[in-house]
Amino acid sequence: MRERRARRGPTSTFLERAFRYFDVSSALSFGAPPMSGTILAPTTNDLLNIRESSALSAVDTLFGLVADLWPILHRLASLIDVKHTLEKEEMATPGYEKTINMRSDFDTNTNNIELSLHQWTPKVPASMVSIETPSDDSRLQSVLNNAEAHKQAAIIYLYRDIHSHERSSSKVQAPVKQALQACMRVVVFSGPMAALLWPLFTSACEAIDDVDRNVARSVFRHLESRQGMNNIVTGWEVCEEIWRRGDAGEVEIGWREVAQQMGREVIFG
């Protein structure tokens, strides 16, 4: 299998990696497990060797600096189905040995993923360490903050969707603030914003402070003006409705439920 993997051409490599990207993005959109099995962290051979004058040619055009975060997100997205199965088993057969073992395995997996997320940092290619042009430096800062936004959004997803912490919990609100600030810095540095919707939407939905909500509104406004996609407007409208309902007392309502009641669908990626 490794030999066959090594012989793949640039087109098949790109298509496989694009599938991995959108598979995880779709799983996070629909709250369902990814279609693909476990994916491996990318190797050097997986990256296309494009030589350009800009040092930023070393940045993965599909994943940015989150290529090695994607396998962790794949594992994270896979947990939701396991969680639902476990909850059903615990309701049907509480104290049963099989159920106890399932709970133990689930807790071990979630703890490992939590540790991996907190330890993860984007790896800056060596060719980018000594960037000299201001435009390249600004773009690098944007890509780095995009990566940080993805990391913090993943932590939010873990604590809200998997661990079911309350929205007001400090474990949720701390990464909410960090993710939104990272999203804003992507805007400030005028970098690529095509992959920003998931971390922006995930963090904005959980925002409870006016300051954080205003940051989210500003980023949504810039993202919509840059991309001009209806999906961004839909995400913004769903966020506003979640905030409205939260302020009216529906504190723990989830975004998928709100989107369904609004007849909307938010697709990441």
What does this structure look like?
- By secondary structure, this protein is an all-alpha fold.
- It is 64% helix and 0% strand.
- The protein has ten helices and no strands.
- The protein has helices at 2-6, 10-30, 70-92, 97-119, 134-162, 170-188, 197-205, 210-227, 230-247, 255-262.
- α3 (70-92) runs parallel beside α5 and α9 packs across α10.
- The longest helix is centred in the middle third of the chain and has 29 residues, at 134-162.
- The protein is globular and about 60 Å long.
Number of β-strand runs? 0
Rg calculated over all Cα atoms: 19 Å
Helical residue percent?
55-70%
Count of helix runs: 10
Q: Quick one: overall form?
A: globular
**Overall SS class:** mainly alpha
Unreliable segments of 5+ consecutive residues: 46-55
Arithmetic mean pLDDT:
85
Question: Topology as H/E string?
Answer: HHHHHHHHHH
What assembly state would you assign to the polypeptide chains in this entry?
Answer: single chain
Q: Major β-sheet, in short?
A: none
Strand content of the residues, in percent?
under 5%
End-to-end separation in angstroms reads 29 Å
What's a quick, concise take on this entry?
The chain has 269 residues and is mostly helical. 64% of the residues lie in helices and 0% in strands. The chain has 10 helices and no strands.
Outline the secondary-structure elements.
Elements: H1 2-6, H2 10-30, H3 70-92, H4 97-119, H5 134-162, H6 170-188, H7 197-205, H8 210-227, H9 230-247, H10 255-262
Helix pairs in contact: 2-3, 3-4, 3-5, 4-5, 5-6, 5-7, 6-7, 6-8, 7-8, 7-9, 8-9, 9-10
